[in-house]
Write a structure and sequence with these properties.
Length: 213
Amino acid sequence: MLGPHTATLGYVPRLAQKIRASCTFTDAASAIKSKKFCPTITQSGITVPAGATLDLNGLNDGVMWDGQGGNSGKTKPKFFAAHSLKQSTISGLRVKNPPEQGFSIRSCQNLILDHIKIDNSAGDTANGGHNTDAFNVGNSSGVTISNAHVQNQDDYLAVNSGSKITFTGDTCSGGHGPSIGSVGSRSNNGVSGVRIESSSISDSQNDVRIRTV
């Protein structure tokens, strides 16, 4: 369970002053101090204390964003992996400029994500954010996403497979809308009991869409 404190996580690509071959960081303080010198960054078991900010402003241009998302180009992390969680709650996180998916939710049962803010607004540029799904859900049941604020360039919610998925009280703008799909291209394609309710969607390509390929 994460919360009730708030931590801010973020990537913003900019010019670096000095280059090393690569850097591996295991704590937030080291990452913040040495980020400018690293064209390739690995975060291994990194911990961000409650109330702290893992601020990766000032990265070398193109370290993460290259306009290609997860399709090609730089290898990018799915920013927060919520995998195999049961009877769990994640709350009060603010994520800024994830390079690809914000939250990857896999094989979870009865998971609540509440008051999550994902601000990918800086990706609204050429060679900016791509494949920046806010919440990507697969093979999970009983997932509730409530009171989220999302600004991105892709799906606010993408349900690839699962049941009893609720998206409620959320505010979203700039992307493709909540989506069910791509259904049909995976070993598990079952989707049922998806509820999208009491939410605000603006400046979006779609209100809600179902993708079958």
